[in-house]
Design goal:
By secondary structure, the protein is α/β, with parallel strands linked by helices. It has 7 helices and 12 strands. The radius of gyration is 22 Å and the shape is globular. It starts with a helix and ends with a strand.
Length: 223
Amino acid sequence: MSQKHLAVIAICALSLYVGFSFMAELRASAQPDILSQHIRATAIRGETIARALDLLTSEYSIPVGIELADPKRNPDRKIDLDLPETTVKEFLDSVVSKDPRYTWKLEGDVIHVWPLADRDHLLKTLLDTKISHFAVADGSNRYRIHNDIMDLPEIKTKLIIADVTPMIFLNFSSMARLQKGVVFEESDLTLRELLDRLAQKTNVNRWIIRRWGDNNEFISLSS
């Protein structure tokens, strides 16, 4: 092959590379910036951090995952906020400033909130536990989904060893069903990743995991 032909091939390859790079950058720039999203003026009175953060999912459909602190070490704090129009980032910063046990981070388009202080070791262990497979039947409600997750063998075994009982509450929110026709099936991922994908791919767009009881003998998963 002549040097002229090699040069033409090289130029074509470079053009394709530049074109693909440009399209990738264009797609990335088209993605919404969650942390810059607008939040209207907000007033919060006497709410826990989980209740305060409910605003992001209930009114803005932003996926959020919350790991609550050990209530035996430090009871829940009440949050009061008066915020003008702001952004998601500023809202999150304001909420955790009122309960500085917690921090937050945007990871994989899900906002994670977890305790820096008074963290429950079992919750952290469960969230890092690898799940081999999980599937949701079409039309399942949140109550069924949360029960099925707590009944996964990888999770159930750790709960039995820790002598902790899962308690999933039946209420109006937990009776909400997945959108019709939604199929959810995932394999080989951690519990945290599983909950995140549920939050991103279905209308179960928030997860909260916590321990409670006189001796922290119960665990709850809710949305």
